DNA sequence: AACTATCGCAACCGCGCGGAT
DNA sequence: GATCCGCGCGGTTGCGATAGT
């Protein structure tokens, strides 16, 4: 597209963290002018008396000031949903956010990158494909590589066939927690300390449910789940999470 | 107590899409 | 059809908070 000028090139515009005063002005404006009634975001700084670009105002509102935002930790259900939706939609955070009322795409993206992604990698699961890493195509960082080198042996079997299940079927993530034998919540393994699975090459096979063409094989009402239900505790090497 | 490393979140940046002209 | 414009999205960065040494 031709020659579009940057939105924030105006001199004298503030950047960086918002002050309480700026927040107040923006909230006041949006409270009085309502939802998109005869204005566009580009006009907001002028109308609200802010020295910010419109884009910055929009981001501040949508990611932080909106009254319907939910703050705080993600619940097990939300984490479960994020993984499920990410398997189906990929990094389309805004689409994922639609399914999580009160969470913004930025929230979800941050949580994915700082919590879920790391955990999956350490479990030997590629967070992009939701499948096990191929042993010779590790995308893990140096730390994980060391762990893999120290693991007993590379996978000796091909991936276990992938299975698709509905929400109501047995093989959902709750089974993962159940094999643990304790009272932890299903996603406690993601929410607690950084346990390390004994590398992608351990004896156990983590079985992924995700088939190749996820979007076409999954109805809107079904969920894709990591399938652990048929595997034992030792097989999954989940003991590491007990540390 | 001081320093360093790591984490987590808010905010920025650049690009693409879609509607308007 | 070409261009402009506003918006939204996804990736990345900056920095304060916290943990570890």
From TrEMBL:
Keywords: DNA-binding, Nucleus, Repeat, Transcription, Transcription regulation. GO terms for biological process: regulation of primary metabolic process; response to other organism. SMART domains: SANT. InterPro entries: Homeodomain-like_sf, Myb_dom, Myb_TF_plants, SANT/Myb. Residues 10-65, 66-120 form the HTH myb-type domain. It is found in: Nucleus. One of its GO terms (cellular component) is nucleus. Residues 10-65, 66-116 form the Myb-like domain. GO terms for molecular function: transcription cis-regulatory region binding. PROSITE patterns: HTH_MYB, MYB_LIKE. The keyword S-adenosyl-L-methionine does not apply. Can form complexes with MYC2, MYC3 or MYC4. This is MYB transcription factor. It comes from Capsella rubella.
